[in-house]
Amino acid sequence: MKQISAIIDQLDTALAGEWPDAPGIRQLSYSLQKQPDTGLLEWLSAQPCYPKFYWQQRDGHEEAAVCGDCCSFGDMQRAQEFIRQHQDISDLHIWGLNAFNGADSSDVPANALFLPRIELCRLGNTYWLRCTLFSAVSLHEEAHRTRLFLRSLVASRALPPITSRVVQHQHLPAEPQWNQLITRALKSIEQQRFDKVVLARKTTLTLSQPLNACAFLAASRAVNHHCYHFMLAFTPQQAFLGSSPERLFLRDHTELFTEALAGTVANHSDNQKAHELGEWLLSDGKNQRENLLVVDDICQRLQGGAHSLDVMPAEILRLRKVQHLRRSIHGELTDADDAGCLQRLQPTAAVAGLPRQAARKFIAEHEPFDRQWYAGSAGYLSNEQSEFTVALRSAAVKGHHLELFAGAGIVAGSDAAQEWQEIENKAAGLRTLLEEHYTPVVQAG
Ligand SMILES: C=C(O[C@H]1C=CC=C(C(=O)O)[C@@H]1O)C(=O)O
Ligand SMILES: [Mg+2]
């Protein structure tokens, strides 16, 4: 990426100039004249600086690779206040993750939303590099720190092949405990404690060697189409990533786009068979109920914050391993308030249940692991536009371990064995990227 190193030299010269010895914020932006010779994910993978975040919008039109933090935020409210305080810098973007339980989650780092030092972005075929300087003390000192940071950046290189093999796997809950959990959930639904609860499983894969998170995400992006692809790398060995089909919300000024994505059937490689499965899904009562409860939840939660809500007819979203029912929802916000949107929409009934509080209580009491980032959200906020995907079809990379997450909506009429198969299919979107590389060990004798 010769162009990028030329821009970094230009940036270094600008930073070596005169900067006020006073608090402040500045942005320097440079267009790339042509498409870089390697991808943004390859560039990000090579950089030895953390945190780093990658994002690709599900229609593939927008992509960003960002790294280094000039400032980090414990929650969306603080991130939004920061953007509002610095309205004069029109293009400030804050990127990252929101935990499932939001800021009240005890054991996840609270600073997963950050204002990066460097952003390499693409919109269609247009590329640019943006550098942000922020200091509450001295921009002069910050310019110096940024120059040191720039020196740590390295040239892009090809992603390594995935050579990690799965040595062992462990499901939490395992299938017998899952069956008990579903029985208990169905009983609570019968007793009218709630109408729906979404229950999930964590599968820990032990690997033969640590997994390169960027290479894994690239492998997923190559095959898992119609998905948002995201990754937050905290350290060289630790990252959270995913390829999720679900939009939490897109805000464009005061226009809001969200959706109810719930109700699932397997995909099939044969188009005719896949179509028949999709037709079945559209007419199945249990799956329609799962989806319509999400519509109800979203419409209720948006009351007072948005008007002119339009709910589109159900459509089938066909993914590599599964197909879903989706109803798109569009509305007009009373105020361009991202923290408000997050608070109203996360978690939707596609990942928690309805009524929300009762379902969350059931999850907290009965699900045998902490969701942390799973079913939270990943994306960015900025003045004009913000977008977050629901952090599904996701995994935590932890050195030799990969934790895969998958859940399913439980409503009256759910069957434990079918829901187990459904979460197997959902987890397969990421899991098969490793297993396809798996060569069984041939036993001697
Ligand atoms: C909770 C998950 O999926 C949600 C989104 C789409 C379909 C779902 C379902 O049919 O159960 C879930 O509500 C997950 O992938 O972990
Ligand atoms: Mg389902």
Tell me what you see in this structure.
There is one protein chain. The model has no long low-confidence stretch (mean pLDDT 95). The protein has helices at 2-15, 40-46, 76-85, 139-152, 175-190, 213-223, 271-283, 285-301, 338-345, 356-366, 416-435; strands spanning 24-32, 52-56, 62-73, 93-98, 113-123, 126-135, 166-172, 196-207, 228-235, 238-244, 247-252, 255-266, 306-311, 315-318, 322-333, 353-354, 377-382, 385-390, 394-398, 401-411. It has a 20-stranded antiparallel beta sheet that branches. The longest helix is centred in the C-terminal third of the chain and has 20 residues, at 416-435. The protein has 445 residues and is of the alpha+beta class. The chain is 32% helix and 35% strand. The protein has 11 helices and 20 strands. Helix 1 packs antiparallel against helix 4 and helix 3 (76-85) packs antiparallel against helix 9. It has 2 domains: 2-152, no CATH class; 166-435, Anthranilate synthase. Magnesium ion binds next to strand 12 and strand 20.
